[in-house]
Amino acid sequence: MTSPRPYLLPASWLLLSLLAGGVLLLAGVSQQRSQFQQNSSIAHRLLSQKMVQHEAVLATLALQQRPPPAAELLAGLRPAMPQLLALGLLRDGRWLGSGSTPPPLAATLLRARQRQRIQTQSADAAQYWLVAPSGWSLLLDSRRLLAPGEWPAGLQRVALQLPGGTSTLLNQPMPAWGWPMALDKPLPTSAQPFTFHSRQRYGIAQWPWLSWLATSTVLALLLAWLHSRRLARQQAQREREQARLAAVSRLSTLGEMAAGMAHELNQPLTAILANLRACQRLLDDDDERDTVRQALASSAAQAKRAGDIIARLRALVTQQAPRPLAGIDSAALLASVQDLRQTELAAQGIRLHCLDASLGQRPLADGVALEQIVHNLLQNAVDALAGQPGSIDIRADIDAGRYRLQVRDSGPGIAEPDLPQLFQPFFSTKPGGMGLGLSLCETLAHSLHGRLTAANLPAGGACFTLSLPLADKETP
Ligand code: ADP
Description:
This protein has helices spanning 8-63, 70-77, 106-115, 209-249, 254-282, 289-318, 330-347, 367-385, 437-447, and strands at 84-91, 94-97, 119-122, 127-131, 136-141, 157-162, 165-171, 178-186, 195-203, 326-327, 350-356, 364-365, 390-399, 402-409, 451-456, 462-468. It is α+β, with helices and mostly antiparallel strands. The protein has three domains: 1-228, no CATH class; 280-318; 326-468, Histidine kinase-like ATPase, C-terminal domain (Heat Shock Protein 90, 2-Layer Sandwich), CATH 3.30.565. The strands form four sheets. It has a five-stranded antiparallel sheet. The longest helix is centred in the N-terminal third of the chain and has 56 residues, at 8-63. The chain is rod-shaped and about 160 Å long. The two termini are 28 Å apart. Adenosine-5'-diphosphate (ADP) is lined by residues 380-381, 384, 409, 411, 413-414, 418, 422, 427-430, 433-439, 462. Adenosine-5'-diphosphate binds next to helix 8 and helix 9.
């Protein structure tokens, strides 16, 4: 049997796969982010050290009484400071420094002296001057602050916000699409507090596709395994149910068959007896000839039913091929039930009301089996009233595309603890009851691909519901 909702399994797999993908991606992002933070912090620290180095050089130069020529100083410092492009001393408007033309630093020097601290002046977007109050000045190229080999591996783009604009220090290829990461933080020096910008993208190509694929495959296998286990359990349950049905439906011992027959035949035989007694009484009265004729016809019908019941029980026991199912005329069936029992029940103060609202739709069933079920349920309802006046309603209609027949009574209903065992063979609460009626009805209902259920009515009394498939228009 296939699952009633075939999309459920792939949909669950898809949902779980997406969930697993999300979790894996978030884990990847978190790992990449911490790597990025770590790399960016290292670059930030290295650049901060360079800034401190610049200020230390200016402080050392300020202490020189007889400084060597600038060109010599530059040559000495350049191996350790490749970013240093020029240096010199601006004194009394004269430039004592490397390079021939004096740089336009007078205003910046004035500011440095007023504030007594190093000042910056941009040369272009990537280069800037550092001017100390002593007049010593350095021209620095930000792009050479770190050599290519000094950058932490994995960093993609680093820039510094200089007085002249943004200078890109590192520009590694960055994926076009991906999870963006950023760090903006000023360098912690008082004279060169340039903002450090680091950017990176966790590219789609780096996302954990392989782990996701593996997880999805494992999930698919797991779900398939769980599904097959569920199917196997359902199959085992079905087999158990079939075995139980087979056991109940074949009353294998003579004793059980006799008990079943006695139970089933009791009702038509009682009716025949009542009819014959009435005939006996009325035989000599010419005016009652019609009543006698009717009673004899009813007896004949009951005798025929008894014969059918015996044939059916024999078929159950000997496992003859089941009778073919046909479309049953529900209205005619209910009319015949009403006909057979109404007068007798009315004499006991029981109002029997049969209503067919199936609008011409026919249940697919075996007529004798269906009749047997209805008569059994009706007799149980009569028994439940226990000689008290009351009412019994039999109603047939269509519910959710199936034929539904309900037998309701105004009796005391079914005790809650009895409900689960009602359909078990030999369960009875009646003195002298055999407890075979409902079990037989359920077996018959199953053989008709139907269901029989019991419930209590909110206003009191019991309601037995038989549901059967509908016959096609073409079914005979
Ligand atoms: P029996 O009629 O021989 O007891 P059944 O299998 O027909 O066997 O019924 C089993 C039991 O179900 C009954 O003994 C009774 O307790 C309960 N039962 C069946 N129909 C009704 C009903 N309409 N109202 C209350 N109890 C019922």
